[in-house]
Amino acid sequence: MQISHVAxxxxxxxxxxxxxxxxxxxxxxxxxHNKSTGFSSYFISFDSGTKLEIMSKPEITDEDKNINRTGxxxxxxxxxxxxxxxxxxxxxxxxxxxxxxGPRITGDGxxxxxxxxxxxxxxxxxx
Length: 127
Fold this sequence. Notes:
The protein is of the alpha+beta class. 20% of the residues lie in helices and 35% in strands. It folds into 2 domains: 6-56, 2,3-Dihydroxybiphenyl 1,2-Dioxygenase, domain 1, CATH 3.10.180.10; 74-126, 2,3-Dihydroxybiphenyl 1,2-Dioxygenase, domain 1. Strands 1, 2, 3, 4 and 5 form a 5-stranded mixed beta sheet that branches. The chain has a 4-stranded mixed beta sheet with strand order 6-9-8-7. The protein is globular and about 50 Å long. It starts with 5 loop residues before the first strand and ends with a strand.
């Protein structure tokens, strides 16, 4: 068994699509839009075969995303090596995204950084 995809709601669908394309080399499909409900989505595919669905609809709300909450915490992207972790982290930092931690070796031995990304969602960049 494997996870088919992960999905997240966003307020600004086009900005989210651009984020995943620009910083994480994602490849979006054609926009799906349901005219009767206002629901829209993109599937962002990554070279590994992993998919992320980003979705939006008119009535969604953007609640405070306290990092010490229950539920999904972050999405981690494995980029292959330390140099790539460093490169992507610096690119995100230069673009104004807040680096929460790293790049660093974590207590359990992972080399990673954690970024507060599009619409305050956490993204980990790891080997």
